[in-house]
Amino acid sequence: MIPAAFDYQKVKTVDEAIAALAGGDGKLLAGGHSLIPVMKLRMNRPSKLVDITGLSALKGTKEEDGEIVIGAAVTHADIFYDNLIKNRLPFFIRAASLIGDLQVRNHGTIGGSLAHADPAADWPALVLAADGSIEVQGKAGKRRIKAVDFFTGLFTTSLQDGEIIISVRIPVPAEGAKTSYQKFEQPASRFAIVGCAVMRFPNSKTNIAFTGVSDNAFRDANAEAEISGKPLNNESIEAAANSALRNVNVLSDHFASEEYRRHLAKVYLKKALEAVM
Ligand code: FAD
């Protein structure tokens, strides 16, 4: 299908992008791999697209003040080839390799993925498990939103109208921290039917986040409490898996029923914990 007519503006600075969004129903255009499909289906009809692909402020990765900073316009493929990310956050490399196909990985961006907040997207689970926060800028200036406060529902976030994601900021993990991302994927799109991200620290604190399971990606506090502070072995991993998804409203669709998703979540949590043993 062909999208409804729209104006197009390519901006050179973040301030210009903020001004271009002000007071209208315009949308930012990053990789376009989520926005353009929904526009073609006419589920979204912005009157203007503000192209942010040229903004250098949104590009690159760096380590700064004890954090790994990933620009919002960094593509999935950029992450896959990034040495800083490879050394500090190896589960990001695995997740990047599992996203879509080559075209999606070459164009889709981490900022676009977080803003779109697809319930089956991969990055939300990883940013949650890594205790990340999202740096945004709008008319009122810059602010940071913790990942646990960012994803608020199906395709919804705590971004305010006119705000732009500038970067994703992850605290540098303690030396010896281990990470894992395990995903049961939809075979055509490779979106997560169930994705589980784990970060295990040397003091045995364990962060566990799921995607694909519910309206939005989330940290599983019960599973974390069950396994944190304990050695990883068959019994403790089984107990953590059994405590997962308590009080979670689990999705049911033509890819997987609620019962099947619950089963998969346990299996994939076990795989993720076994990988950080
Ligand atoms: P866009 O499509 O350009 O934008 C998406 C939304 O985010 C828009 O509302 C836009 O206005 C907003 N936005 C973009 N950048 C910013 C910003 N900096 N600040 C604020 N708002 C912003 N994803 C997965 O996680 N796993 C998969 O396996 C997977 N498979 C896919 C397979 C196919 C065939 C396709 C088409 C997509 C797939 N995706 C998958 C989604 C893909 O990763 C998208 O690229 C990503 O979700 C959106 O990033 P984008 O840069 O393309 O954003």
Describe this structure in words.
Helix content is 33%, strand content 25%. The protein is of the alpha+beta class. The protein has 3 domains: 7-51, Uridine Diphospho-n-acetylenolpyruvylglucosamine Reductase, domain 2 (2-Layer Sandwich); 56-171, Uridine Diphospho-n-acetylenolpyruvylglucosamine Reductase, domain 3, CATH 3.30.465.10; 178-275, CO dehydrogenase flavoprotein, C-terminal domain (Enolase-like, domain 1). Strands 4-5-10-6-7 form a 5-stranded antiparallel sheet. β4 (61-64) and β5 (67-71) form a beta hairpin. α10 (221-227) runs antiparallel to α11 (234-243) and α11 (234-243) runs antiparallel to α12 (258-275). It is globular and about 60 Å long. The N and C termini lie far apart (48 Å). The model has no long low-confidence stretch (mean pLDDT 97). Bound molecules: flavin-adenine dinucleotide. Flavin-adenine dinucleotide (FAD) binds at residues 27-35, 37, 72, 99-100, 104, 107-109, 111-113, 115-116, 118, 121-123, 164-165, 189-191.
How many helical stretches?
A: 12
Largest sheet: 5 strands, antiparallel
Distance linking N and C termini: 48 Å
Shape: globular
Give the number of domains. Answer: 3
Give the C-level CATH assignment of the largest domain: Alpha Beta
Ligand list: flavin-adenine dinucleotide
How many β-strand runs? 14
Which percent bin holds the helix content? 25-40%
Radius of gyration, taken over Cα atoms and rounded to an integer in Å: 19 Å
Order of helices and strands: EHEHEEEHHHHHHEEHEEEEEEEHHH
Alpha-beta classification: alpha+beta
Which topology of the largest domain does CATH recognise? Uridine Diphospho-n-acetylenolpyruvylglucosamine Reductase, domain 3
Fraction of residues in β-strands: 25-35%
Low-confidence stretches: none
Under the CATH scheme, the architecture of the largest domain is: 2-Layer Sandwich
Average pLDDT score: 97
Give, in spatial order, the strands making up the sheet with the most strands. 4-5-10-6-7
